[in-house]
Design brief:
Shape of chain A: globular
CATH superfamily of the largest domain in chain A: NAD(P)-binding Rossmann-like Domain
CATH architecture of the largest domain in chain A: 3-Layer(aba) Sandwich
Order of helices and strands of chain A: EHEHHHEHEHEHEHEHHEEEHEH
Number of helices of chain A: 12
Oligomer: homotetramer
Largest sheet of chain A: 7 strands, parallel
GO biological process, one term (chains A, B, C, D): inositol biosynthetic process
Strand order of the largest sheet of chain A: 3-2-1-4-5-6-11
Helix content of chain A: 40-55%
Protein name (chains A, B, C, D): Myo-inositol-1-phosphate synthase
Largest interface: A-B, 55 and 55 residues
CATH topology of the largest domain in chain A: Rossmann fold
Distance between the termini of chain A: 24 Å
Radius of gyration of chain A: 20 Å
GO molecular function, one term (chains A, B, C, D): inositol-3-phosphate synthase activity
Organism (chains A, B, C, D): Streptomyces uncialis
Family (chains A, B, C, D): Belongs to the myo-inositol 1-phosphate synthase family.
Number of strands of chain A: 11
Amino acid sequence: MPAAAPARTGVWLIGARGSVATTAVAGCAAVAAGLRPATGMVTETDAFTEAALPPLGTLVFGGHDTLDCPLPKRAEALADQGVLPHGLADAVRAELEAADREIRPGGPLPGDTRDEEELIEAFAADIRAFVRANGLARAVVVNVASTEAGPGDGTLPPSSLYAAAALRADCPYVNFTPSTGLHHPALAAEAEAGGLPYAGRDGKTGQTLLRSVLGPMFAQRALTVRAWSGTNLLGGGDGAALADPRAAAAKNAGKERVLADTLGTVPEGGTHIDDVPALGDWKTAWDHIAFDGFLGSRMTLQTTWQGCDSALAAPLVLDLARLLARAHETGLAGPRPELAFYFKDPDPGAPAALGEQYAQLLSFGRLLAGER
Amino acid sequence: MPAAAPARTGVWLIGARGSVATTAVAGCAAVAAGLRPATGMVTETDAFTEAALPPLGTLVFGGHDTLDCPLPKRAEALADQGVLPHGLADAVRAELEAADREIRPGGPLPGDTRDEEELIEAFAADIRAFVRANGLARAVVVNVASTEAGPGDGTLPPSSLYAAAALRADCPYVNFTPSTGLHHPALAAEAEAGGLPYAGRDGKTGQTLLRSVLGPMFAQRALTVRAWSGTNLLGGGDGAALADPRAAAAKNAGKERVLADTLGTVPEGGTHIDDVPALGDWKTAWDHIAFDGFLGSRMTLQTTWQGCDSALAAPLVLDLARLLARAHETGLAGPRPELAFYFKDPDPGAPAALGEQYAQLLSFGRLLAGER
Amino acid sequence: MPAAAPARTGVWLIGARGSVATTAVAGCAAVAAGLRPATGMVTETDAFTEAALPPLGTLVFGGHDTLDCPLPKRAEALADQGVLPHGLADAVRAELEAADREIRPGGPLPGDTRDEEELIEAFAADIRAFVRANGLARAVVVNVASTEAGPGDGTLPPSSLYAAAALRADCPYVNFTPSTGLHHPALAAEAEAGGLPYAGRDGKTGQTLLRSVLGPMFAQRALTVRAWSGTNLLGGGDGAALADPRAAAAKNAGKERVLADTLGTVPEGGTHIDDVPALGDWKTAWDHIAFDGFLGSRMTLQTTWQGCDSALAAPLVLDLARLLARAHETGLAGPRPELAFYFKDPDPGAPAALGEQYAQLLSFGRLLAGER
Amino acid sequence: MPAAAPARTGVWLIGARGSVATTAVAGCAAVAAGLRPATGMVTETDAFTEAALPPLGTLVFGGHDTLDCPLPKRAEALADQGVLPHGLADAVRAELEAADREIRPGGPLPGDTRDEEELIEAFAADIRAFVRANGLARAVVVNVASTEAGPGDGTLPPSSLYAAAALRADCPYVNFTPSTGLHHPALAAEAEAGGLPYAGRDGKTGQTLLRSVLGPMFAQRALTVRAWSGTNLLGGGDGAALADPRAAAAKNAGKERVLADTLGTVPEGGTHIDDVPALGDWKTAWDHIAFDGFLGSRMTLQTTWQGCDSALAAPLVLDLARLLARAHETGLAGPRPELAFYFKDPDPGAPAALGEQYAQLLSFGRLLAGER
């Protein structure tokens, strides 16, 4: 009797034609095929070999987007910017094309006359169709769309429409952006009752990652941080989206929360996010930390982080999709503060220091393994 | 019946007229008198209120040094360099003079004809006399002298002579420098048999402190560090001492050990220590870390740490003296890897990540409290 | 017959109790007395020995301010922040007190019912009285007050009232700030007719100084600057004043003009000025320059400038007062683009590269010498 | 009657298979064909349109090298490292192959029994044959080989053998490296008598370029530089060559000469060159400058330059070849201090500040135009 084909797991990306999504799809294929090492994927380290996560080769990608640039073309453009290695887009063209075929139009677009309920239902139908057509065990919905401005007038912002669709389609949900998503009051009851695991929000990829180890260092050493100032320079879609002060405010709230939580106080200083199109997807983040040492001596630490935003985010997206898929499989539901390691603004109850978050993540991995 | 005077604890500093020692003596007095906050002293945080550590006001300072500049004058010079706040030397002049009276000539000086045994015995006699004359419950010996070149010809280097004297005088011992101290094979048996707690070596005050949180961050995120390069610029006595390549080698070994231990591999790149007298006691450390992200994307992190070496070291010296004094009081003996938080090259068995070291330190504090 | 006492020259400071003014008064006294070297004063270099500038010891200080903190106390506060060396305030107390006695209330303060004409006349009367009472050959008026928001409703902003008063009192005028000063259309005719030399505006002390040498470097090497982004962190009065976006806009216009003038294009990127009170008068300016090299290779330069704003500005203020006093003596009138070396936004006709500005300054020095 | 074909000019590269040479050959072809802008080439700016320099399309490349990797393959490898844009090697394959055919074996290789005279004659014969076979008007010899250790035992180092061959073949000579080249005493008389223009040495591409504008800035502002420290991290062939302390010493001498010449004093501090293979051809240079401002205030400037070494060097190599070819055509001979703009260690008589060097270069361009 032939062995059954392994179960396949869906990853439904909101913003499926963006840089992060394209990098995740291309990268998953490249790593699964052994073309590239799994650098940046924590779920591929030894600590997770027993966690029974869905193998990379069993992930199936689809998603919503309001743009219509084909994924292979998007991947070529990313290669020209140095985000993807040259030749990779060609090597994984089949996988990019397969994912491209599973992308459905997002919304609402200008002129769209559907009301909230109609949009949610349409999105949920797309997701259900994806799961059914591909014979998937389940699909995890991950929001990697551009940051939207904070909620305003009581209507559901697009990120929350998609989150509601995920609940309706019975899918675990990850919010990798600072957008509202499942954090909308109108969705709270449904999220709680849904029996689905979810996690968020706002992926911790660069400056905030650093802050989550430096803040605890100052606190543990009893050094008094007087001012923590930061500037982020980035281009790409994210740079443009964050040029909207309301979007930037949402992002900065997460950045500064990490400081408050790890330092125990809110130091002076602010954080800028500047749109610099010339930098493309390459982000530079400068932090200047003024702190007092013994007897009031004035000291400083400066950090400059230069990274490719999509390459930092994509492996975390793959990690989260796998972890939530397995959590769903084992019957876990509700918010997962054990995944705080990945987020600027994690679910309540999580520690703020990266080291402790990592310890919780390892525990979570053991929990997933144990329930196998 | 009047209350008994509280027990007093000695802190015997090898290098007692150096910047670190002077800052420790002046700072202890200033903090004990409420003139300055206890910034940088972990033992003054809430976590240690139950640990029954000797209060700062009960510490009595003395030590060995081969120089003879009076401590009050040394403190004035440090104030001129901005290491100590102006006016502080005057405010704690009595305490500086008291410590100054307890400093004995170190050695061996050129022309000194005493052999190793005679030197050890002379040093031990000085320490015993200090304890007796001041009616101390005990004294902790702390090496804060300039880094000496690595051991060479089988003879005991000065740092080991002092360490042997500490054992002989029945004193707990801390090696805050990369010098050999108690790590000499000739002292191993005696250290083990002595029933004394000891800790070391090489205080972790700046660049290595940073590395002990950044290294784990890269490892936990599965980011591949390809090269970690560093340059330290500093003047003062330490800059001059470390201009000796053999002394610098001892220091660098500690710096690079932290990388190897936290990253799991030894990345490319080296570390320079440059003597720049113009900088005085103010140290600038630049680190450049080249790492690979997902799909081999090339990223970098740079850090610039600008701090005052003595102000970084002095509160740690006070912490260590208090912790080892209390450990001795409770009967603990042998190496204390629980104090790895403070050292570049801690005693075996300690974790390498600062967060875990901090957790162990807190446990140690609870242990000390429990044995009260 | 006794030799005549040397002529004395007045320096009338608008903002006479501010950090820059206090540093200029104290520093002039210290350098004149030989207590400190003339670091940062270009007019004390060999190139100006023949220029017949008024000796530092013959300068007499006075000015307007709306605050009333005595200069000696202000100097003590600056010493506590590390802006002035300790002990200096005491050493030059007599000179600080003398200047303090010559400071008159500025305005208009809230509730002041005087109209523009009355204010100008009152200020001019103060200046004339200062010149007469001290038997001065002349006085140079220098605006070192906090940056004011850009001009708005057609009324004269305070900086222009003071500038008009300088004209009326027949005094050369320097605008060391980005405020309007003499650049107000209502003052144009009077400035031209006045027969007085004047110069401005906005002292070039840190980030813009750097840009005035780096911009030409990129241009001369035919390297294409794609984006030039900057962040300034500073506290003190200037930090607070520049937290007003309109004041910051005035300052940034000067900063970006230097780039446009030296690069020939306006690159992407903006400049932030952040008020960080914890930094006091110590300013940190970070610049990130993304440029293209041969064949489109992407390169970057980053600079971090850490300086004390008042200590950077004060020697330039003294330079300018001396140069304009001598220019007045030799009969020069009108705008002095030869002093572009000192300004972000110099008078028309000046080159933008610091090297060329320096060459013009040297020529100007020879001109002043020749007309002796 | 058909127009005569334009004269063609040879560029004979010592180290013709290295990164700089490969980039120069590929880049020249790309710019000549209009595929890429001439970023970084000063001779392509408007200031040189009248200078009658040989057009890029008329340059013919050849050279010596001891390696045998074909240029097209070398170009592919550079593209993989991000030094050359992807696709460029293919687009200019014909030109790379043409240059490849003109590369002759260098020497002496191990086991080579030829004496100095034989080597010089062999090299000169290669160059003469190149000129003759290609019907060139002239050829300029440019040394872009790896830095060799300083001269030792009186024998001619390889760079001097090649320089002697250039003289013998009647070719203008450029030394773009810190190697000895024409600076050997044994070649002095011949160089002087040769009637050939020559220039050198050691191209100024990054850290020293910066120093040549920052040094003058400090000097012109009368700010006292107390210490100037630097660290260079680079991989590639140059990184490996400079890991030899003697080669690094040669390079550093040039770097520090610029400081001494522009500051008028030699500040404290040294410069490190570290071989970090992981960085490939991408160089990071960090400088830390401690300077005193007014009244002794302690300030610092830090710069971090991140550039691609070959992309910085190649356009300067093309500039120099064209300028010396035209100088030769107009009959100019001897050292050309007017080209100091390009060198760390220029010919005697040149100014040290980049701005003045640029002015001299422009004058030189006018001279070349005038003699047309």
